[in-house]
Model the fold of this input.
Amino acid sequence: LRRFLAENGFVIVNRNEIPNTSLKMSGRRSDLMKSLDKARVVIDVSPIKNEGEIALETSAKGAKAGVSIEKIGAETISVSIEKIQSKAVPVRVVQIGTPKNGLVKTEPSDVTVEIKGATSELDLVEAVEVKMDITNVLSNEKKELGYSLILKDGVEPEDLYTIRADKETIMVQNTVYEKKEVPVKINVKTGNDNLILSDETEIEPQSV
Done:
């Protein structure tokens, strides 16, 4: 069912909507044993044309001759179906740690990532986040990193079932800049002749 839906641009919204079902069969023991691996419940997908709540009928197939199907556990299955849509979400970079030398700028190679899924779930994703530990970054380098989804408040990752991304990692560029400390000086330009600066005037911070 899920394969058919994916091939036709649909997806089941709730992962728990396809229940486990059973078959009750009768016949000779030898015939029943031969049917165990082949008898199956088949779902009729022909009613699936659009989004919405859809009731799908089931039937049994694969039983050996001489085996009767007495009962199917679920004669109909109701599912919520949505169209698969796509959405470009921004990439956020979070630096972790303190560089040993200079300053480090981390930039992603792609500013967005395309994700696909049900519209109701796409609306819950705000961005993707890449975490870069810059503690041991001493020179310019590229690094391939995994990422996590940034979701709206109150949404948990397990609430999302249909979301898929076009890539699993993001390449980032780390650029190291030298750091230099310079003193802070006061340069006052004013037309007020009565403004006097004392030699004891203190500046905080004294350097940046």
